[in-house]
Amino acid sequence: MQRWRSSRWCFVSLVVNLSRMACTSRMEECERVVDVAVVGGGLSGLTVVHRLGSKCSWVLVEGSSRLGGRLKNSESGVDLGGAWIWPEFGQRKIAELLRELNIGTFRQPDDESSTRIAGGAYKAIEELAKKLPQDRIVMNFDVTSCAKEKREQGEDRELVKISSSSGQSVLARRVVFAAPPRILISRVQFDPPLSNSRRRAMEECRTWMAGVTKVALEYDKRVWSLGRACNTGLRGGPAFQVYDGSTHGDKLIALTFFALAPRDLKEEELARLCVEQLRGHWKMMGLQQDSSALQKFKRVTVQRWPEEELISDEIDPQQIHPHPTPFPPLARSDWDGKLLFASTEADLESPGVMEGAVGAALRVCKELGY
């Protein structure tokens, strides 16, 4: 996977290579004005800037050291975040984006109604990033404030300034927030404040995947019959769902569990408990399947999404919240169209999944006029 340059290198390159720049050597003093600043380098944010292309000046800022948001692969290519799409059930936007990026799909091994992405869902992030100028992407830019800034001179009398915890700042004519609403409202100070109705909507919006830990176990071969690994009713332990996480063409065989896992539970012990749950479920169902081989996994990878502070505020999750439903206040622009919102939770058709991330991005691009 391509290694992304540091935030300092990216920002200096932005200063050198883009026109209309008036900036000192200190990043925090930069007065560059872009047409659009996009906050968040997940699927939605990257789709926005991919669509903007060369139609306007833009910069994308990402608060962490990696792109992808809630999409992530293990080193061997197993999905650790969002994994499924459902084109046959009307999710055409993500399917069209994948075709545009020349990324294939395949049926979920134990559930023909679900579709996965060849190369893992993170493949979409990699392919989008390849098409973008790296000098317009600023990593480790954790936005902590967003304020209107009035000017007495120049063509732009009112701009929006976003600033990071390290003192970096960007001036933009409009800002797109492509990050979880619940995290934004808790971490970013808006001046002037957002309306009470919008604040409530953002505070009450649960972030899908935020409380989930994914446990991926890799095997030399499939030691279960197809259909035996897919279950959403696991009880009596940390896992509540399991599916066949094997990659396209069975190049790598894996079982993947969704779990609510205590922070202090070590990875190997967490994996053992998940396996014991599945074995117990098979026994309870009277399935004639040798389950002892499940214990012989060769590698375990654990992704604890509750520990990702830019994604989750659920330090010790105790329950899985219902899947998000469309909520119009999250999709409305603010500050007379200067603030727009494009996270998957802000989609009005398929919130909380990859289709929603792409849908929200396309809606925002239309609102921007591009």
TrEMBL record:
Name of the protein in question: monoamine oxidase
A GO molecular-function descriptor: monoamine oxidase activity
Lineage, top ranks: Eukaryota, Cryptophyceae, Pyrenomonadales, Geminigeraceae, Guillardia
Assigned protein family: Belongs to the flavin monoamine oxidase family.
Assigned keywords, A-Z: Signal
Amine oxidase domain span: 112-367
Species of the source: Guillardia theta (Cryptophyte)
Pfam family, any one: NAD_binding_8
Keyword Signal: yes
Signal sequence extent: 1-24
EC number in record: 1.4.3.4
Catalytic activity: a secondary aliphatic amine + O2 + H2O = a primary amine + an aldehyde + H2O2
